[in-house]
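Our preliminary data section would be incomplete without showing what the modeling component actually yields. Below, a chain of 256 amino acids is followed by its predicted structure, encoded as tokens that our downstream tools consume directly.
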Amino acid sequence: MINLPFVWELDNKGITSCLIGTMHLLPEWSNLFQLETIAHELLSGKKNLLLESHLEGNDLRAVYDEVKKHRVEDYWQGLTEDERVLLGNLAGKPPEQLATQPPILLMYDLFRAAGQKLIPGIEEILKSEAENHVPPISCSGLETREEMIRYNQEINQNLPDSLARILEMERREPGSVHRFTYLTFFNYFSGSEAAVLTNHFQKSLPSHSQRNDNMVQRSLSYLEEPSVVAVGLSHCIGEHSLVDLYPDHGITIRRI
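Predicted structure:
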């Protein structure tokens, strides 16, 4: 039995593949050996590994450089001094360091402060396993560099709303943000937490549903052979998710 909370079997006219809802980063205390064992099991007999993105070297650097242009100064100016101190405490950094920090790194700091040191997620483990597999498994991406840049820009534009929610949550119940983040990692997005976060993605990020459409469409030709589709869990839960969309294309799906 595969011991991952969110794995679905995809049946395309008798050809069996699987969909994995992943987390892009994991806390250091994750059972890495177990994940590697699971990755080997999931990829056994598969021809393709499909990830949200499959960027190498300079491509990944280009995305990061583009995202770095978008900082949080404008939002920072609207914060009270107490809010700045609170945000600094949450991120585990002096407040003045956060004012010029790329938003995506600010959110990363919030997770890191709650979950201790973070390590690469299941996608990286699967990718490494695919590259070392005999025979090799083809690894492809379901999103382009340009799409990743646009999506990260959209996240940055919606950051003020996300941070406002974080600050309000922490004001009402000190320590709640770190506890929530820790439990999210520990439970690997339990049902209620996944629903809350997925609904937030769908409402605040207009491109989320379109990304799901694109990923499903681009994966269809690969699913004519046994494959593994590994995408962030928020793409697998809720309305217009990959789990919702695959049956529209004649693919039977069941959770395993």
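The chain has one domain: 7-255. The chain has 13 helices and eight strands. Preliminary results of this kind motivate Aim 1 of the renewal.
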